[in-house]
Amino acid sequence: MDLSGAEKIVIAGAGQAAAQAAQSLRQGGYAGELIIVGEEPALPYQRPPLSKAYMKGEMDEERLYFKPAAWYQDNKIEVLLGTTATRIDRAARQLHLQHGAVLDYDALILATGSRPRALPCKGADLANVHDLRTLADVERIRPQMVSGRRIVIIGAGYIGLEAAAVARTMGLDVTVLEMAPRVLARVTSPVMSEFFTTEHTAKGVKILTNTALSHLEGQDGAVSAAVLADGSSLPADLILAGIGILPNEELAKDAGIACSNGILTDRDGRTSDPHVFAAGDCASRPLVHYGRAGRLESVHNAIEQGKLVAAAILGAPRPAEDCPWFWSDQYDLKLQIAGLSTGYDTIALRGDPGERKFAAFYLRNGTLIAVDAVNSPPEFLASKKMIMTGARIAPEMLSDTSISMKEIAAKAAA
Amino acid sequence: MAKITYVSHDGTERTVEAKNGESVMEAAIKNSIPGIDADCGGACACATCHVYVDDAFMDKVGTQEEMEKSMLDFAENVKANSRLSCQIKISDALDGLRVTTPESQH
Ligand SMILES: Cc1cc2nc3c(=O)[nH]c(=O)nc-3n(C[C@H](O)[C@H](O)[C@H](O)COP(=O)(O)OP(=O)(O)OC[C@H]3O[C@@H](n4cnc5c(N)ncnc54)[C@H](O)[C@@H]3O)c2cc1C
Ligand code: FES
Q1: Which chain B residue is nearest to residue A320, measuring alpha carbons?
Q2: What mean pLDDT comes out for the span A11-35?
């Protein structure tokens, strides 16, 4: 379907993917109406600092915003904030908003992101029990991040561990509960899990793996303890839940658009309705380097899909798709991840975890599919390229620090 | 406050007023300077905010930390005056700074 004549484009959601799509549409020459609808009260902002520098109080709010308000005006982008999109009328090509307003569209981009999975237990609604997804969440959490207080973090994923690092640095007493036998179990290998466990433990964070939460107890309406499945109880002044996210796919699903753990799209971000596109955390797209579809929860994915969708609507050539990547900051550790490690059969280690500078490479059938690089940008950057080209490399070579990553990349390319 | 001039690879110049404390990358993004992607928002994780610093300012922009050095070592078309613009903090001393953006950030 050719939408290059579109005169009304509406974006539902006002986060990373929405900001990128809007910018790419204007840069690509789109001159028609452009409206962004966002339920949060804030202009589009970056989330990564929410569990890092911003949470710690080391970054002004102003720096979270992708663009100042004037940019939207200058680019004639209407932004309706504090407004929830409630329903898509596909036949009429209209997006319904709360309070009865209706927007016509030629193309609709769903960039609704995701929401934290709610703690499924008694006491989850007590005061001082928090999620960490929005600016408003951090505004609630931050005043409680006081030295000496006891925080229990449920879930040892990246967000949980990043928050643990911040809380510990701020002098809180930190305990992390994890149901799985190791931290980061869903996203990385045992070597990395062990490394991060050692780091956090050395900093004084208590990590309890194989530990399930039973429920939360309160006093005067505020949380006072986390009770574990074995009946033991951990006193707590505040709780932070980081047990995963769910895609905001309901708008699409209710309108009969195909969804399966995310709004299903083709490579250009088009859903099963040719006038409707999806980008970012809410979308499940073909992962071209991995031969399957999937939903990625990362900044890079939101940016890339924002660009792809804009190009598809404008009828412009499809921008190059980069290998998926992600980063995480904890204490003075920078973790950079390229590729998806699911399904690896071999790991090659390079460098020394004891020196806090090393990388784990993941291979399948001799092909590099992913890397986790700790304080090792060359390993990350070189791998990003090698993963895209489907490079086959001997694990021994990757582990050999006498051969530079440049040489390895050159050999792999040859 | 400092006036910063961004020169694109084709020679187009744009000058902006930048606030002390923000980075050369942030000032570029706020003012819609093309040629700087800054995908990671300044976390020194993406190397898509690469610029070339005018020689006259090389001393004033401060030195590179280990992480930046190592990121740049692997970016494309790196020169002696290459920097990651998210790692350059603006101060009065940088008034008049000129940086050139590379043809592409990848
Ligand atoms: C604390 C935290 C730390 C992170 N750290 C990293 C990191 O270090 N590196 C990394 O790569 N990624 C990180 N991420 C992930 C990254 O921020 C997300 O993948 C990215 O923001 C996804 O962009 P998006 O546009 O899809 O969704 P979002 O940025 O979440 O934006 C979606 C927006 O849509 C709004 N919305 C939803 N439904 C509706 C509706 N019906 N009507 C109107 N508006 C609606 C939401 O309120 C939200 O504002 C982090 C995320 C969090 C929460
Ligand atoms: S903005 Fe990502 S490294 Fe500078």
Answers
A1: B106
A2: 97
